[in-house]
Amino acid sequence: MRLKDKVAIITGAGSGFGAGIARRFAENGCCVVVNDINEAMGREVVARLNADFGDGTAAFHSANVSRRDHMKSLAGFTVARFGRVDIFVNNAGVSNRNMPTLDIQEEDFDQIFNVNVRAIWHSVCEMVPVFRKQGGGGSIVNVASTGALRPRPGLVLYNASKAAVVNMTKSMAIEFAPDGIRVNALCPVAGDTPLLATFMGEDTEEVRNRFTSSIPLGRLSTPEDIGNAALFLSSDEASFITGVALEVDGGRCV
């Protein structure tokens, strides 16, 4: 129960890593607001969490994280529902399909940087005042990627956006340290999530095997792996950790 009596917002929690983070948080006593633009998937996650950990453990709020007014609504909903916010996890993310850089369209650029980068700025602008009003403290976890640290061809825009996430994380960790607000990032290697086919270009056994062979521990990441790492960084056990970009990658970045 490492997050007992705490309240967390997790964006993009209707599937994949976000759903895994939400489950680990709920297992450890945290109340969770699940955010996703896919309402059906988000509400399904909430229903499972409430069934497994008690009615009222989780609530759903739809919001487009690339819009400031939606992020403001998300923060306001959480405070109204649970009375406070202790943890904000910026997990929502998008990517172009693995392809040559010259084939990427301008609208892909806009969407990737709006969701992966602009959304983090929005979240900080809305959440830091809430943390300060509550008396300071709080944890922000930004989900970046191994692509920020060990980029590969075909995902140039995605890699660049996640490198921005790492840099923003470190910059904000210093800026908000006087408030007791910790800001950390996770850098997962690709996992078996809805984005996997996008990262690889196509999802075939041959492509999966080739990708997995590049990970020293010999497998893709799982939502449980990322949930465990987010749980640690959000807990009091990590109270002296801020500004890190934690690789959860089976050794891929070594």
CATH superfamily: NAD(P)-binding Rossmann-like Domain
Report the structural category. Answer: alpha/beta
Please state the average pLDDT score. 95
- Report the helical percentage: 40-55%
Number of domains: 1
CATH topology description: Rossmann fold
Rg, Å, rounded: 17 Å
Count of DSSP-assigned helices = 8
Q: Give the low-pLDDT segments.
A: none
The global form is globular
Strand content: 5-15%
> Which architecture name does CATH use?
3-Layer(aba) Sandwich
Question: How would you explain this protein's 3D organization?
Answer:
The protein contains 8 helices and 7 strands. The chain has one domain: NAD(P)-binding Rossmann-like Domain (Rossmann fold), CATH 3.40.50. With 254 residues, the chain is of the alpha/beta class.
Throw out a few tags for this protein.
46% helix; globular; 7 strands
Task: Record the SSE blueprint.
Elements: E1 7-10, H1 16-27, E2 31-35, H2 39-53, E3 58-61, H3 68-82, E4 87-90, H4 106-133, E5 138-143, H5 156-176, E6 181-188, H6 196-200, H7 205-212, H8 223-234, E7 245-248
Helix pairs in contact: 1-8, 3-4, 4-5
Could you write a compact summary of the structure shown?
With 254 residues, the chain is an alpha/beta fold.
